Amino acid sequence: MLRPVPADRGTTPRRSPGPLGTRLPLVAAAVVAAGLTAACGPSSQPAGSAAPTAPGQSSQALAAGAESATGSPEASPTASASPSASATALPGSSPSPSSARSGSAAPAGTPAKAPRTSAAPEPARIPGPGYDSAADAQKQIDAALRAAKSDGRTVLLDFGANWCGNCKAADKVFGQSQTAAILGASYHLVKVDIGGNSSANSALLRKYSPSGGTYTMPVLVVVSPSGSVRTDTHVTGNPSLTSEGINSFLRKWAP
Fold first, then answer.
1. Which of 51, 84, 167, 210 is the most buried (most CB within 10 A)?
2. Does residue 212 belong to any structural domain of this protein?
């Protein structure tokens, strides 16, 4: 059963919640102000770093500090290059396709090829003075004709004898440098001895100079590579047996 309390009994008056409620917001405001001062005020830390979180700091202050620490992409345009800047090539930094092809066509240091030149054929061999009675004249003529077909020269047959004065005069001219150069460049010279008793050599004379009669030595016969006679001095007469006469004759019938 409840007992009535005397009206005059002293009781402790209850505190009004108003002043306490007023103080709590003030404390929170002070904490927020302190956090903002720490985040935005002068600091020895690098720019853009977040200030240490104070105990009791509100979530709003932490969020504000995080935003000020990281920063938006728009606030730091120099942090990364724009796509257009990174993709744009500098002028002249890369060769054009045409210049690249031309550069690859001729690598540096590659020596250029020298143009081919056809070497002049060596001069034909010129027999020495005199006539070899032991030589196989037919074989020599056949070899000269084969060589003429190969190098385009012509064949000169010299029928004579070692006791013939005119033959010796012709031999002397054949040994001179200018005449020898013409002979070596244009002729294959074959000397056939008809001053002895060689029937084979006499037959060769009649083959290449068939007009017969008395022959005046030397008999000079120019024969083409095919074996046909181009000129026969037994028919036309000998040229002057000097360097001028023989050289003129050789130049006239050179191929």
1. 167
2. yes
Instruction: For residue 70, tell me if it sits in a domain.
Output: no
What is the reported pTM?
0.55
Query: Residue 139 pLDDT > 50, yes or no?
Result: yes
Q: Could you identify the residue written with the tokens 């003075």?
A: 129
182-241 tens-digit pLDDT? 999 999 999 999 999 899 999 999 999 999 899 999 999 999 999 999 999 999 999 999
- Asked if 158 and 241 touch (Cβ cutoff 8 Å), the reply is no
Structural domain that includes position 202: 137-253
Task: Calculate ∠ Cα 193-227-121, nearest 5°.
Answer: 90
CATH code, domain with 172:
3.40.30.10
Quickly state the pLDDT bin for 38 (edges 50, 70, 90).
Answer: very low
Which residues lie below 8 Å from residue 56, measured CB to CB, with a gap of 6+? 31
Our count of domains for the chain comes to 1
Q: Taking Cα atoms as reference points, which of 238, 247, 119, 255 lies closest to residue 182?
A: 247
21 burial class (0-12, 13-18, 19+ CB within 10 angstroms)? exposed
The per-residue pLDDT for 124 is: 85
